[in-house]
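Protocol step 4 of 6: structure prediction from sequence.
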Amino acid sequence: MDVKSYCDTISNQLIGWKASIYDIIRAAQRLSDKDRKTVQPMIDSLNRVMDDLNRNLNELKSQCPADWSPQRQDIEGKMGRLKSNFEQISDELQSLLPDSTAWV
């Protein structure tokens, strides 16, 4: 897979993640102030990982290095962190919301 195809694929995945994060933020807004403060650091973490991924992809697209395996490993590690953080906050929201499917 070439750099452009890889970046396009990851960018499309990020669009899906952004939609999921938006859903989580909307669900968190329905929580009490106390519970919202509990999940806010997790939401902030998701947003930071997304920002990092967008920066990495923009750099990769503009630089187009011959050997981009280090960038790919970095991006894939961040995608793994994004998934892990998302699952953690999902579990937390399910325990905090009276209707466990209300945010899905």
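Step 5 (inspection) to follow. The chain has a mean pLDDT of 81.
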